[in-house]
Amino acid sequence: MILSDICIKRPVFATVISMILVVFGVFAFERLAIREYPDIDAPKVSVITLYKGASAQIVETQVTQLIESAIAGIEGIRQVTSKSREERSQVDIEFTLRRDVDDAANDVRDKVSAIIGKLPIDVETPIVSKVEGDASPMLWIALSSDEWDAVQLSDYSDRFLVDRLSVVPGVAAVIIGGERRPAMRIWLDRREMAARSITVQGVEQALLAQNVELPSGRIESSLREFTVRTDSGLITPDEFSELVLKEKDGYLVRLGEIAEVQLGTEEMRYEVRANGEAAIGLGVVKQSKANELEIAEGIYEELDVIRPALPRQIRMWVAFDKSRFVDASINEVFHALGIALCLVVGVIFIFLRSLRATLIPAIAIPVSLTASFMVLAVMGYSLNVLTLLAYVLAVGLVVDDAIVVLENIH
Q1: C-beta separation of 71 from 111 below 8 A
Q2: What is the CATH number of the domain that holds 272?
Q3: Same structural domain for residues 333 and 314?
Q4: Do 248 and 396 reside in the same domain of the chain?
Q5: Which of 211, 154, 214 is nearest to 184 (CA)?
Q6: Residue 99: CB partners within 8 Å, gap ≥ 6?
Q7: Is residue 58 domain-shared with residue 121, that is, in the same domain?
Q8: Which of 103, 114, 259, 302 shows the greatest Cβ crowding within 10 Å of its Cβ?
Q9: Distance CA 247, CA 235 (A)
Q10: 262 touches 185 (CB < 8 A)
């Protein structure tokens, strides 16, 4: 009982130590990461394979099943989940907590590489990557307009908004949901193609051969130097329509004769809607150890700065904010902790009928709980619902110890 003897003989020293613990505890509390739940995501590895033009059934039988069979013997697999849809196969492998995610990813990569030769020729090389637990956006910002289309909104967001939001402290990345990129869409007429003996592969080869931009070296003289570049890049629909597909009996068959060329978007099979309006979304992905509440506060402050400079045609608002649910959960547990503390102190005062005796547990509980924040920070833990519930339970343990001390004093 050396510590208790020292504290009894030197009360000033004990008071100073308690104050130091409280100060360091408050200092650590301000730097603790706040999450809804602890960061204990199981190691996950994802295998994504693209097979253009294939139906979901073909993707399932010719790609997904082969990958599932190849990875079946890997050590430490807890669960395998696969999704097969048009042109895309995704296999998610979850490992046990004791399995190192880097070693697991290497094992999956080796197994998948061994079956690449068995996959169809047109299948792209499978992408093996580690799945981060915090990879999903914690906040979505919606942008819509009555005058601008999705292509213009995507371009504006990419050039002016993504970089500004990415520099907010704690933000890992900002993704554009429902992004529409401009592309030239060529609608082929099969009758005109048949009349001129032209195939889809012939059109594709002509586009690849003639729509190019290549470096061609340089021209040097004693006084000047010029960079030579071969540029036949096509930009407008009219330029694409003039592209030569073949020559037949001295006649040049051009793309505009067998197809309608329009300026459109790369992907037309899906769109994003917010409040019933066509829109795009900006998803904010946080860093793994960052404080969600501080990130959300920083994003809102940045949006307040951005709004006055927005074009009048654009409406911007926060469509989803996970930090609100986290804040509500944390506040609810803090509320329960405060009630528990008040009830404990009140019950002790009612039964002991001594304000001086009640002060011992009333001071010991806050000092102990505040000092423990320093331990959480050193151990790398976060402040979440489970740790706060543990604090609620710990109040009873601290009270027991305080009552024992009080009993020994009396």
Answers
A1: yes
A2: 3.30.70.1320
A3: no
A4: no
A5: 211
A6: 43, 75, 76
A7: yes
A8: 259
A9: 23
A10: yes
Residues 49 and 93 in one domain: yes
pLDDT of residue 332: 83
Residues 228 and 343 in one domain: no
Range of the domain at 355: 2-37+326-409
For residue 207, give both structure tokens.
């586009």
Residue 204 CA to residue 248 CA, distance in Å, equals 18
In angstroms, the CA 191 to CA 212 distance is 28
**Terminal C-alpha separation, the chain:** 18
Q: Are residues 233 and 96 in the same domain?
A: no
DSSP notation for 271-299: -EEETTEEEEEEEEEEPTTS-HHHHHHHH
- Does 183 or 93 have the greater pLDDT score? 93
Q: What stretches of 182-225 show up as alpha helix (H) in DSSP?
A: 190-195, 200-210
Please state which of the ranges 1-5, 24-28, 65-69 shows the lowest mean pLDDT: 1-5
User: In 10 A of CB 358, how many CB atoms?
Assistant: 21
Distance CA 33, CA 379 (A): 12
Calculate the CA 183 to chain-centre distance: 27
DSSP state of 243: -
The two tokens of residue 99 are 């399995």
pTM of the model: 0.70
Range name among 67-71, 108-112, 114-118, 330-334 with the lowest pLDDT average = 330-334
- pLDDT of 87 reads 85
Residues 172 and 306 in one domain: yes
Q: How far apart are CA 256 and CA 263, in angstroms?
A: 14
The domain that contains 381 carries what CATH number?
Answer: 1.20.1640.10
The helix/strand/coil state of 185 is strand
The pLDDT of 226-252, averaged and rounded, is: 76
